[in-house]
Amino acid sequence: MTTRIFGSGIKRREDPRLITGEARYTDDIKLPGVLHMAVVRSPYAHANIVGIDSSAAEAMEGVVAVFTGDDVDLAGIPTAWLIPDSDLKTPEHPALAKGKVRYVGDGVAIVLADDRYRAQDAADAVVVEYEELPAVIDPEEAAGEGAPLIHDDVEGNIAFRWVMGDRDASDAVFNSADVVVSERILQQRLLPTAMEPRSAMAQYNAATQELTLWCTSQNPHIHRFIISAVTGLNENKVRVIAPEVGGGFGSKIPCYPDEALVSWAAIKLGVPVKWTETRSENYLITIHGRDHVQHVEMAASNDGKLLGVRATVYAGMGGYLSTAAPGIPTILHGLLYVGPYTMDSVFCESIGVMTNGTPTDAYRGAGRPEATFLLERMVDNVARAIDMDPVELRRKNLIPAFEDGYEVATTLIYDSGDYPTAFEKALDMAGYSDFRQAQANALASGRYLGIGVTAYTEMCGLGPSQVAGAVGFQGGLWESATVRVTPTGKVQALIGASPHGQGSETTLAQIIAEELGFPVDDIEVVHGDTTETPMGWGTYGSRTTPVTGAALAHASRKLKDKARVLAAHLMEANVDDIEYADGSFSVRGSPDQAQSIQDVALMAHLAWNMPEGMDPGFEESQFYDPPNFVYPFGTHIAIVEVDAETGEVELQRYIAVDDCGPQINPEIVAGQIHGGVVQGAAQALCEGAIYSDDGQLLTGSMMDYCMPKADMFPNFELGETVTPSPHHPVGVKGVGETGTIASTPTVYNAVLDALAPLGVKQIDMPLTSAKVWGAIQAASANGGGN
Amino acid sequence: MQVSMTVNGVAQEADVDPRTLLVHFLREALDLTGTKIGCDTSQCGACTVHLNGKVLKSCTLLAVQADGCEVTTIEGLAEGGEHHPMQTAFWENHGLQCGYCTPGMIMASAAFVRDNPGASEAEIRHYLEGNICRCTGYHNIVKAVKQVADSAAGA
Ligand code: FES
Ligand code: FES
User: Which of A266, A281, A361, B2 is a plausible cystine mate for A204, CB 3.0–4.6 Å?
Assistant: First the structure.
């Protein structure tokens, strides 16, 4: 009996090239005669461009050309998520600024030179005269009276105003509730920091009019049509290749000016052009995440029934509206306000505000962490207000288990869930029943322990295309895949999605192995090149395993159906008598007669003896549009100790019980959770982009921006429950973002729980020792705790 | 400026712009692109190589400063066609995802364990402070390094 490959934590097939340094990322690829592009970037957050003098730069050794915004005839960089009913404004975003710069890092000119260093030197020698204008960074301020106007056509800096729910109905609930708690929550700006900086290289063949663009992309097919749109080239003349990509976390979804500019320059100059950002450049120009100021309220009854939540959100968009930006603090945010609770009233007003910060867009979790945080924060506040244990309060309000569809007040229909089981399992693992006593004992000896418990569910596996259209996403959200079997019985699966660290080459091969019985090592998954792969919308929103996985499962099943008929024909048996096991077809009752899947594949290719009406070849494709999102869920628990003398937080234990349906490769699932938890916990504890009042990014390098390090974390304690998605062919749900979504409130609430005896009720993230210490001092000056 | 060094056992000689960083020399002049660049402030460790057997962030040194030295990069770590034990341990323990930090992580960890067989988990976590990974949450990296540290201590 062979071990089942589906569900087994096999080693990743991606790794041999990665652990030896053989993998080729964009910047590793060399073309003869390539020119390096450097971008002259604005040092001001908001300024008029008075004049540009590039003569000194042009005279420098190795410099081929300098171009400014007036030279570059590209269409504007588009915004591609046009949320409806929100009075959305989409201000022009030129690839190089024309007349005005709107954030530090905004591109003003490009320099092309024969060498990286020389290009940068020459960029530094371009003299730009600016007239500085007042700048604004805080989104709430930018939406207020008297704020500097960033785009003439975006009145009051308000790019959109999106409303979910009924304001009057919400008022009625809140006006009659026993308890209403409120808090101003700051979802600070975060720097996604994929370890591979962004890079792009373009080559143009004038004879064939074909452009090839290698770039750090999570979605090369989307890049292809945007590059086609901004350059004016026909889409079938644009080939986008995302080679090895070193992480994205959302920051490699958007199409950026730089990718358009290398394309334009390669066409203009007729030689290949490459650009790779430095880390400091990355921090200035690659999208940031979060940046919400939220005013949140939650209503409850005295006996602990959660009645409703509502929020006004000021979401900072930065100087321009990035590719998917409007959808993040709206559709991907407000629709998550019910979480895993039986709560009937939700209301959200989300105001997208132009600021003089770096443009924001999807960052791991994208809108959903900001929703889960406010929900979990407010549940803890309600617990405190009615003096109920926060675990008991959550337990009372969890939606009971359901297997196939549960509609909530935000109009979403959750696919399946068993929140109470995951919740109790996590509490057991953490030893919650004993913890409160241990906490009291510790307190008696002057030690401050705290626990944070988060129950969550989230919406991923994006998503039905009809929904995408209804919410203004300028694309579909299906995926396609081709399973191609060679005459010798080896498999190539071509997918439109574009994984960049998720291990999907392994996971997806496991799905095909399970469906078709080929040895997993005989299956290759090909992705990233728009010429080699079928159309797909990309890897984000925890969608590749659920959506591409479903496409592959269906394509495999079509092949299996064909194989069954052909096998019956070859064995001169009735199709109904064919039995299949482990990649082999046999005739019921005569087990010595068998055809392996490889035999059948060969015969399908030879086509010497096909059944009437069957086409030759052994290859099937499937377009798959999911009927619903998938909704993974779980409970996370953090235990921390705070040193009241220094304000330092020690994360002592972290327990995560997640349910993403059946796990195809549990090791890969665990890796996704580990990484996500660290990213989310780091938001609570240390990460945050800080700007000066005049819009300079003060955390502009890794020296200043606190990236989480190995010694900040314990080993994680993981558990799982398994609730299949009813609508998915193999039942799986996405798991790429759950860690980030759940961990920020978990760690935050744990720290605030530890600080409760000291009278500290709220601290803006991140909870650095300086801020925690300051809050302790302030609370004790106010009389401290009880 | 003329520079010569032995890289992965092969003698190399080149004429370089004196300001060329070692990491750029390795990547551009020698096409050893396994060594990565993740920052410009010597924080991330993606560029870690061995210089005369010692761990070094190759973005912090000029190529000319490595004149006459022995450099080992990730491409030269395996011996006789066999993965180095640290490479194997990263693979077996799922110690990587996007792989971008991995060459630096492996180079740093291999030297650390060579010098500190039997290192504890806390020591490993502390040591890895100079290498940043955005994907793995470090859990499986620490597990991989610990596995090699344990077996080095047992040997
Ligand atoms: S590139 Fe050398 S430490 Fe980051
Ligand atoms: S594996 Fe991606 S940065 Fe470490």
Answer: A266
Q: Is the CB of A501 under 6 A from ligand 2?
A: yes
As a whole number of angstroms, the distance between CA A426 and CA A455 comes to: 10
Residue A23 at interface with chain B, using a CB cutoff of 8 Å: yes
Q: Find out whether the beta carbon of B33 lies less than 6 Å from any atom of ligand 1.
A: no
Q: Which residue has the tokens 């973005």?
A: B59
CB-CB under 8 Å, A15 with B121 = no
The fold for domain A17-133+196-246+252-285 equals Aldehyde Oxidoreductase; domain 3 (3.90.1170)
Shortest Cα–Cα distance, A668 to chain B (Å):
7
A289-462+628-781 and A478-624: same fold? yes
Contact A289, A192 (CB under 8 A): yes
Q: Which residues pair with A697 in a beta bridge?
A: A691
Q: A336's torsion region: left (phi>0), alpha (psi -120 to 50) or beta?
A: alpha
> What is the CATH code of the structural domain delimited by A478-624?
3.30.365.10
Q: What is the ipTM of this complex?
A: 0.98
Inter-chain CB proximity B137 and A14 less than 8 Å: no
- CA-CA distance, A241 to A217, in Å (whole number)? 8
Domains and CATH numbers, chain B: 2-74 (3.10.20.30), 85-154 (1.10.150.120)
**Residue B26 near chain A (CB below 8 Å):** no
Beta bridge partners of A585: A580, A595
Tokens of A146: 């008297």
Q: Are strands A100-101 and A47-53 parallel, antiparallel or unpaired?
A: antiparallel
Contact between chains at B96 and A244 (C-beta distance less than 8 A):
no
Mapping DSSP to helix (H, G, I), strand (E, B) and coil, where does residue A743 land?
helix
Q: Using CA coordinates, name the residue in chain B closest to A24.
A: B33
The 10s digit of each residue's pLDDT in A334-360 is: 999 999 999 999 999 999 999 999 999
pLDDT in tens, A718-751: 999 999 999 999 999 999 999 999 999 999 999 9
Distance from CA of A156 to the nearest CA of B (A): 37
Per-residue pLDDT of A52-77, as tens digits, reads 999 999 999 999 999 999 999 999 99
d(CA A451, CA A449): 7
Number of H helices and E strands in chain B, helices first, is 5, 5
pTM of the model: 0.97
Q: Do B99 and A18 lie within an 8 Å CB cutoff?
A: yes
Exposed e or buried b per residue across B46-85, where buried means at least 16 C-beta atoms within 10 angstroms of its C-beta: bbbbbbeeebbbbbebbbbebeebebbbbbbbbeeeebbe
Where exactly are the structural domains of chain A? 17-133+196-246+252-285, 289-462+628-781, 478-624
Instruction: Give the nearest partner residue to B73 out of A21, A503, A701, using CB atoms.
Output: A21
